[in-house]
């Protein structure tokens, strides 16, 4: 994804029924929908870099569950001056399910959820504990 290599990214996914949830997006099902979403993201992102932290891997037979925090730095299309658009940082917690195939490990499902920071909570008028209390 960082190199903008759509073909290489496509080869990481299973050919079978797959699913993907990008932060703030609905569930995408099937290879066509999932790969279209990545094509759209790549077409509208001039620069993206991932720093993975808190990586945990669990393998059971031919299935692997990988959780991590994606520390993402991205920038939109260049402005008229040719300068890269403003860079934006985002934290996403991700769960990735892989299946072992004769060609190697392939992604079966990806689910990314945004991590709310204290400033995000203040903008939303409270914190996560308020929602728990209300429930």
Automatic annotation (TrEMBL):
Residues 110-135 are annotated as: Disordered. Residues 118-135 have a biased composition (Acidic residues). SUPFAM superfamilies: NTF2-like. This is Nuclear transport factor 2 family protein. It comes from the Bacteria. Pfam families: SnoaL_3 (PF13474). Residues 2-115 form the SnoaL-like domain. It comes from Streptomyces albipurpureus. InterPro entries: NTF2-like_dom_sf, SnoaL-like.
């Amino acid at each position: 994804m960082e190199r903008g290599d759509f073909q290489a990214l496509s080869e990481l996914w299973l050919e079978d029924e797959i699913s993907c949830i990008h932060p703030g997006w609905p569930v995408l099902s099937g290879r066509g929908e999932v790969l279209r979403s990545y094509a759209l993201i790549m077409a509208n992102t001039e620069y993206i870099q991932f720093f993975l932290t808190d990586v945990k891997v669990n393998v059971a037979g031919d299935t692997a569950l990988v959780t991590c925090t994606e520390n993402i730095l991205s920038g939109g299309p260049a402005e008229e001056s040719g300068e890269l658009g403003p860079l934006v940082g985002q934290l996403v917690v991700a769960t990735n399910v892989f299946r072992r195939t004769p060609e190697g490990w392939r992604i079966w499902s990806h689910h990314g959820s945004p991590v709310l920071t204290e400033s995000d909570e203040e903008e939303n008028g409270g914190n996560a504990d308020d929602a728990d209390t209300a429930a």
